[in-house]
Amino acid sequence: MSGEGSREDLLAEGILGILGPAVEHVDQKIADVRKSQADLREQVDQLADELRQLSEKQKVPVDLDTYIRKLANSRKRVLLVNDILQNVQGRVEKLHKSVVRETARQRAAIEAGGP
């Protein structure tokens, strides 16, 4: 029976060993995407400001207000995606903490059962 427990512990540790790095990788990628989203939001804001200034200073044959509104809508979508990414990152961080806790628990159980 202790052989079965030992195999289960080894299997659990192996699974956690695989999940831990995968979770860390996903967490890093989410952080990278969030930074890109923040950069994009900043660029959209700058472009909208420049279009507003151009529209105010010059009579342009094209109605820039339409494009300014489109940029504002794009900004809203970027913010929405950022909120979703923030939620996902929070969940991934919770999963990572859970994996770390479970790994520590499994190691402690293996060491306690060892010679």
From TrEMBL:
Q: Which residues form a coiled coil?
A: 30-57
| Gene Ontology CC annotations of this record | BLOC-1 complex; BORC complex
| Assigned keywords, A-Z | Coiled coil
Q: Which GO terms describe its molecular function?
A: SNARE binding
Write out the GO biological process terms.
Answer: endosome to lysosome transport; intracellular protein transport; lysosome localization; lysosome organization; regulation of synaptic vesicle exocytosis; synaptic vesicle exocytosis
Asked if the Swiss-Prot or TrEMBL record annotates the protein with the keyword Coiled coil, the reply is yes
The family this protein is said to belong to = Belongs to the SNAPIN family.
UniProt-recorded name of the protein: Biogenesis of lysosome-related organelles complex 1 subunit 7
Q: What organism, scientifically named, is this protein from? A: Geodia barretti
* Taxonomic classification: Eukaryota, Metazoa, Porifera, Demospongiae, Heteroscleromorpha
